Amino acid sequence: DVATDSSGNVSVMQYHHNRIKVFNSSGAYLRSFGGYGTGCTRWQYARQFAIYDDKIYLADTYGHKIKVLSLTGSCIDWSTSIYNYPHAIAVSSKYVYVGYNSKYIRIFERNRISRSNSYNAGSNLSYSWGMSLNSGGTRLAIADYVKNRVVEFTVSGTSLSYRQATSTSYSSS
Predict the structure, then answer these.
(1) Which pTM value belongs to this model?
(2) 68-101 as b/e, with b when 16 or more CB fall inside 10 Å?
(3) How far is CA 29 from CA 10, 23, 83, in A?
(4) What's the rounded mean pLDDT across residues 130-139?
(5) In this predicted structure, what is the pLDDT of residue 171?
C-alpha cells in the first residue's frame, strides 16, 4: 500500500517485511519503521494503511488489531480487542472504517479506536480487500475480493447504506 502525508512524503508498505518505508517527494529515502511482532509499533502482515491528519491508521491483518502510529512509527493508540482479520481501512475526520474477510464493516471513533459499531453489509459485500473514501467523506468504495467488484456505500457518520456495485471483466490474453 502507498499513502502520502501533508508534507508530500510518500509512505510505502512492505507487506512481507512488515515495515513502512518513507521517501520525500523527490524520492530520497528518509526512514523505515515497523517489523514483525505483536506490540503497537509492529504488526503481522498488514494489508492496508491510511494517513489522515498526519497519523498512520493500520489494519494489522494477522495481529487482529487496529493501530495508530505517528509518521515516524511511534505508537499513538491501538485496539485491545481482537478482530477477525482486518484487511481494509479508510479514515475520515471523525471515523475509521475497517473491512474484514466477511460482510462486516467496523466503524471506530477516530480519536478512540477502542469503541466501535459494526455494520452488516449482508449480501452486498463478501470480503473487503481494500477501501477508500472520497474527498468529502460521503462515499466509501470497497474492493470485494470474492465477487471481483467494487462496492460503494453512502456514508453518514456511523451509518452506511448500500449504493451500488460495479463489476469489471478482464481477460488474461
Answers:
(1) 0.91
(2) bbebebeeebbbeeebebbbbbbbbeebbbbbbb
(3) 10, 4, 33
(4) 94
(5) 42
Cell 505483536 belongs to which residue?
38
Between β-strands 95-99 and 88-91, what pairing exists: parallel, antiparallel or unpaired? antiparallel
Closest by CA to 141, choosing from 104, 89, 93, 66, is 89
Across the chain, the runs of DSSP E, i.e. the strands, are 2-4, 10-14, 19-23, 29-34, 48-52, 55-60, 65-70, 75-78, 88-91, 95-99, 104-109, 112-120, 128-133, 139-144, 149-156, 159-167
Pairing of strands 112-120, 104-109: antiparallel
pLDDT tens per residue, range 12-67: 999 999 999 999 999 999 999 999 999 999 999 999 999 999 999 999 999 999 99
Please list the alpha-helical segments (H only) found in 22-148.
Answer: none
CA angle 37, 72, 61 (to 5 degrees): 35
Give me the percent of the chain exceeding a pLDDT of 70.
Answer: 97
Q: Are 20 and 56 in contact (CB under 8 A)?
A: yes
Give the position of cell 500500500: 1
**Torsion 169-91-125-64 (CA) sign:** positive
Between the CA of residue 145 and those of 5, 85, 99, 114, 150, what are the distances in Å?
27, 14, 11, 27, 9
- Which residue type does 115 have? R
